[in-house]
């Protein structure tokens, strides 16, 4: 059943006929059961949502079936909208027979994809085949026999954008594997290249790069996130200060090749205000007014751009004892260092 907020959103956005189905887990389970006739759906849980008003909505699900767990996503589009995506894989090997539910999916302009057949992350399919996975890992981390017989455990997955997994070797050796879409890989590769020679303990070290597979590998480090550490009763108030000191080091690092500061740094503020207005119309005027005020302030600021993390918050800091390490430089670029502090505060609210 749709929540009141989702029901109101569906009523406003009539351009996406499948929106109600994707936001209603029970309704989606019914449609999915019609598509996967060779399996019995036991439970469906939405794990990730990405919504573009009037255009499309993508929802990733964890699905429990009588034959095991599945990770898949569905994308509802405005009818008639052209897409460059490959056709969804609905073969029995990938997702079960789709004959029963294909008419319903087509009528609602919904495309269904299992994780291994994400059209924007083609290398993901190789993790489903032992031989192909071995070739991928050898190309990514050549000359490292510890990972030849490794298996990969999923950590995080954002459909059509990024997959993060833990590579575990036969004797317990570990590494982080990241697979990207084409656009995301270009940005992540710039960050990896710019800081690969930093030679400092406050950054995770890249140990493999593959343009062919749009993949990066990083050393696996022990510890927990700063967010998790701050939720324990024994956490030290010095940890945030150490994280701030590491961030300050990043801001002063000479990093060639990073993306330049955008011509209009206020554009994300305006886009965020419009997103808020689409989701909560009653907050639209306030959000737009705030965005305009902040844009005016930014126009008057005179800050020399420096390297910034670009997506800094407590989960991007790894804590082990008294040491802190900054993670995920996929969005690094030149900009106002205050943006990193603002991101940290915003995520902490």
From TrEMBL:
Name of a matching Pfam family: APH
Residue spans of biased composition, Low complexity class: 88-100
Residue ranges annotated for the Aminoglycoside phosphotransferase domain, each copy included: 175-346
Top-rank taxon, per record: Bacteria
Matching SUPFAM superfamilies: Protein kinase-like (PK-like)
Organism expressing this protein natively: uncultured Chloroflexia bacterium
Region (Disordered): 76-100
Protein name: Aminoglycoside phosphotransferase domain-containing protein
InterPro entries tied to this protein: Aminoglycoside_PTrfase, Kinase-like_dom_sf
